[in-house]
Design a protein that fits this description.
The chain is mainly α and 93 residues long. The chain contains 5 helices and 3 strands, in the order αβααβαβα. A 3-stranded parallel sheet has the order 1-3-2. Helix 4 links the parallel strand 2 and strand 3.
Length: 93
């Protein structure tokens, strides 16, 4: 799907206002990264290895990370790909 009108500008405005914009999507990681770059969620200087993750990293052994580990991960990641509905709940906790 193409980006919606005004989204890239809205993301930049939110960032300038100090709001951290995060994308949680069911898309594959490479697709999610491309979308995030198109709408300014990821900037050219961002390291994709740290700023974008497949949600399988939230549950490496089938169970979700501890709250402390989840907080550490979610504090730096801005793109969560291949998210299941229950992943979204864990991310926003």
């Amino acid at each position: 799907d193409p980006d919606r009108d005004g989204v890239p500008e809205s993301v930049l405005a939110a960032r300038e206002a100090g709001i951290r914009v995060v994308m949680i999507t069911g898309d594959y990681l490479k697709t999610a990264i491309a979308i995030a770059r198109n709408v300014n969620i990821l900037q050219p200087q961002d390291d994709e290895q740290f700023a974008a993750v497949d949600c399988a990293r939230l549950r490496p052994d089938g169970n979700y990370l501890s709250h402390d580990q989840m907080d550490l991960l979610t504090s730096s990641v801005r793109v969560f790909a291949r998210a299941k509905p229950e992943d979204k709940l864990e991310i926003v906790k």
